[in-house]
Amino acid sequence: MLGLIGAVLSNVYPFKAGGQYTRKDVFRTLGIEDPGGGSWYTGYTSHEDDHFIFCGVGTAGRTGHDYQNRFVGDELIWFGKSQSRLHQPSIQSLLHPAGHVYLFFREDNREAFTFAGLAHPKSYKNSSPVQVTWTFGGTEFNRPEVLPEEVLDPQSVSEGAKKTVTVNVYERDPNARRQCLKRWGVKCAVCNFDFESMYGEIGRGFIHVHHLKPLAEVGEEYELNPVADLRPVCPNCHAMLHRKRPALSISELKQLINDIG
């Protein structure tokens, strides 16, 4: 049965969302010795009032277990250990923490972990293993992948009325975003704008990603290829790409800019 729950906030450790950390990096930040094994190396554990989750996304762990953890947009569907059940104290403590839940993930079990942010349980299922949907809102961290292209309902609405939006989850998936930027970089694919060059440190890594395939053509069985289907674009160009329906292609928008120039 699906349930909704909240989390308690307190002081936080200075992990940066999107930053890469090994477990040893985490231990140094917490000021503790590397235990060399135990609960710190088996998925999730607690330290004082806080909890720490280390999980694979789209990959099996070093023990060979693949729990099918996956991002849907900027939310993570996560599974506890094989025999975990909702009533277990370790799971209840995760869902109702006295402090924070720090969630780290990786797509390759030979790589460092990426800090996803302070995790808040949005919902859970009393399954075995336990399934939890984690969100990462309400923290001081900026997660640049949470920059959806919101497509307004094409039906007209009166001023002040509620609007319905469809969010392109492919543009919000942090795994897809990272693979896209690893291949294409962080400069705008249309105008070549670089936020770090203009704004310094605060602009480092900031960019939208644009989904090349129109939403109307994306079916339920569609499998995203982050390198082929996504491109980095600045917010201005992203907005201009979506000024028409279907969206302009990157080459078409480039041509418009060249024609004006």
Key structural traits:
single chain; 261 residues; alpha+beta; five-stranded mixed beta sheet; four-stranded antiparallel beta sheet; 13 strands; disordered N terminus
Succession of helices and strands: EHEEEEHEEEEEEHHHEHEHH
Strand content: 15-25%
Instruction: Let me know the number of strands.
Output: 13
Q: Could you report the average pLDDT, rounded to the nearest whole number?
A: 81
**Shape verdict:** elongated
Major beta sheet, strand line-up: 1-7-6-3-2
Structural class: alpha+beta
Q: Summed up, what is this model?
A:
The chain has helices spanning 23-30, 89-95, 169-172, 174-184, 195-199, 226-229, 235-241, 250-260, and strands at residues 20-21, 44-47, 50-56, 70-72, 75-79, 101-106, 113-118, 120-125, 131-135, 150-152, 165-167, 208-211, 230-233. The protein is of the alpha+beta class and 261 residues long.
